Structure formats: structure tokens, C-alpha cells
Amino acid sequence: MDNLIVQMINENQETLKNNWLKEVNLFKDKEIASYSTTLKLSEETDQQFFELLIKHINYHDISKDGTLDQFFDQVLHTGLPLKYLTQGLQIARRVILNMLVEAEMEQEKLAALYREIDSWLDPILNRVVENSSQIWERTVSIQKTALLELSAPLIPVFKNISVMPLIGSIDTERAKLIMENLLNGVIKYRSEVVLIDITGVPVVDTMVAHHIIQAADAVRLLGSTCILVGIRPEIAQTIVSLGIDLSLFPTKSTLQKGMENALEITNQQLISNE
Amino acid sequence: MDIQSCVEVRNEWDIVSARQLGRNMAKELGFGNVDQARITTAISELARNIYLYAGRGKICIEPIDQLGRKGLRIVALDNGPGIREIRKVMEDGYTTSGGLGAGLPGVKRLMDEFSIESTVDVGTEISATKWLR
């Protein structure tokens, strides 16, 4: 970096810092206070932020000692909004430019220094955005995996009887998974009857119905019976209005009734010890 | 009326948020359980059509009040390929995507009023209303 600008910044560090803190506080009062009242932004974080920025003027490599990355990670993990960091960087750029303008120098020199500042702050800004998007991507992918694991379990309950409880919205990806787990499970557990419970499915539209019909049909091809249970009254009404024909396989209102039916089909009985 | 809310539909998850919006509004207006289910299902069908056939578009939901008669209107808008044979798509069992072909005629039955306007290569606008009883 140009020595002149480094020197100027170092000499005026106190003024710059005060100006920066003032603007950051203004921004915080206006933007972040409304963001969440539980978030407390300590003065310490601000101080640390600015000092790190100044420290990195002398480095050409922003990941030199890792302190900057560490700081960003720490801030983002405490749930502070990303805009605190981006705004902080923009304010830093602004206060330094103000300082340059006040120094009254030639235009060419000013433009050169301006480019220097950009080449100093831009990589830091990029790094901030990169870090935060990585955190998000990681979170989303973890949740996706977690969701898939919970998605469509087939549970063997009695001999030759299995249950698949479905909870939440069904999209194409999940529908595929339901079909796969259902068919694999029917073979694996030698199920004669599979109960699909849709109590937890909020909306049964034509697409969901279509997938259920296909799944039940595939189960039938394997020689087993599929019983659809957990049909709430309002869902029954919408299915009828939509004109969907679910008469190809038995349906029951509750899992309990479905289970009684399944026991009947498999010639089993529950006997109490009394 | 100005209290209209819209949801952009670009992927499958937007269908869920459109549904959520509709359910909340229906609940607020005082629709019963069955009508809430009807409204959310209708939104689901319309939003899925946008996602499947037009790729992107939006679902707008607004409460309406005509001379004291209250209700809820769903408007589905897209700039997709349009529908060539409107009469055909309103028939039960007609489908171009391997589905059940119950979507649009189903929406018509789920709701009280239904209108569809479509121009090939320009887009489609479907509006459906449910009255509060």
C-alpha cells in the first residue's frame, strides 16, 4: 500500500476512530435497535472491529493471522446481523475519504489514494459476505439432511403390519422419498399391510393425492395392501370437491381404525390379559 | 381494497408460503376449518400450476367487502406460455403433465366464483373468490 495513506491513517487514527464510532452508533440506534431488542452490541465489539481494520492496512493478505476471520465468525455466530459488518466497513471507507478530502490534495493523488483504500477494504468486505453466506449454506444443508432423515420413516408395528406417518408439507423430493422408503420397507419387513397416516399433512391437493395414489398402487403391485388413515373431515371435503378418486384402496379416519382393519386382513388379534 | 398481499412463486417452497398466507388471512376473516382447507388447497393448486407451467409468477390474496358481503379473493398471475384450450383444462382428468388433471376444475368447485383469462405466449390470470357465510 501507498505509504502516504498508511501514514495518514495512522496519524489520524484517533479522529478516525471517533468519527467512525459516532457514525456506527447512529446506525446502530436506527437500524439494529429495531432489529432485535435482545441483541446487545457492546462498545468492545466496535473497538475491536475498528482496531482490526486499522491493523490490516499494513497486511496485504487479509487472512494473514486469521484474526479478522475469527472476529467475523464470532460476530455472525452471536446472531448479529450481517449489515452491522458491511455497514461498519462502509462507514470506515466514508470517514477515511472525508479525511482525504479535508487534506486538500491534488485530484490525481486523491484518485490514486482512493483506489488504494478500495483495494484495502474491498477484499475485507468480500470476505465478510463470503463468511456469512458459508454459515448460511452450512446451516441450510444441515437442516436439509435433518429434514430428510425425519421425512418418511416406515415403522414395523406388528407382524406384517407397518406404519408410515407423514408430517408436514409434501414436495416432489419428499414424494420420491416416500415412494422409495415405502417400497423398500414393504420388502424388508415383509409387510402385508402398510398404513399411511396423513394426520400431519396440512394440505392435500391434487399433487399430494396423486403421489399417494401412485404409492398405494405400487404397494399393490408388490402384493400388499395400503390403507390411507388420518383423513380429517375438512380434508375429506376438499378431496371430494377436487374430484379425486381414492376408491382404489381402503381409507380410514384414524390410525386406530386402520390398525383394526390391518389386523383383520392379516388374521391377527389383540388379546387382553384380563 | 389495498390490503392485498402477494407471494412470488419461483420454487416449491414458495407454494408453501403462499398457502400459509392464505390460511392466515382466511383465519383472520373468520372462515371455518373446512373453508380454510378449501382456500389453502385452491391456493396450492394455483401456485403449483404457476410453478409447473409458467416457471414463475405470483399469487395475490385480498379480503373483499361488497356491500357488507365479506370474502377472500385469490388472484394467480403469470407471464407464462398461456393456456391454449381453456375449455379443455376445465374438464376433469385433462392433463398435460401426467398429473390427475383435477387442479383447475377442482379449484372452481372449491371456491364460489372463478374466472380465467389467458393469452397464448402472454400469460394467465386466474381469479377465485370465496364468500364468508
TrEMBL record, chain A:
Transmembrane segments: none
An example molecular function term from Gene Ontology annotations: heme binding
Domain of life (superkingdom): Bacteria
Domain STAS intervals: 151-262
Protein name: RsbT co-antagonist protein RsbRA
Pfam family, one: Rsbr_N
InterPro entries on file: Bact_StressResp_Reg, Globin/Proto, RsbRA_N, STAS_dom, STAS_dom_sf
Species of the source: Fictibacillus arsenicus
Alphabetic keyword roster: Phosphoprotein
PROSITE patterns cross-referenced by the UniProt entry: STAS
TrEMBL record, chain B:
Domain of life, per lineage: Bacteria
CDD domains named in the record: HATPase_RsbT-like
Domain Histidine kinase/HSP90-like ATPase: 34-133
SUPFAM superfamilies xref list: ATPase domain of HSP90 chaperone/DNA topoisomerase II/histidine kinase (SSF55874)
Signal peptide: none
Keyword Kinase: yes
Pfam families: HATPase_c (PF02518)
EC number: 2.7.11.1
Enzyme class per UniProt: transferase
Molecular function (Gene Ontology), one example: protein serine/threonine kinase activity
Keyword vocabulary terms for this entry: Kinase, Transferase
InterPro entries, alphabetized: HATPase_C_sf, HATPase_dom
Protein name: Serine/threonine-protein kinase RsbT
Organism annotation: Fictibacillus halophilus
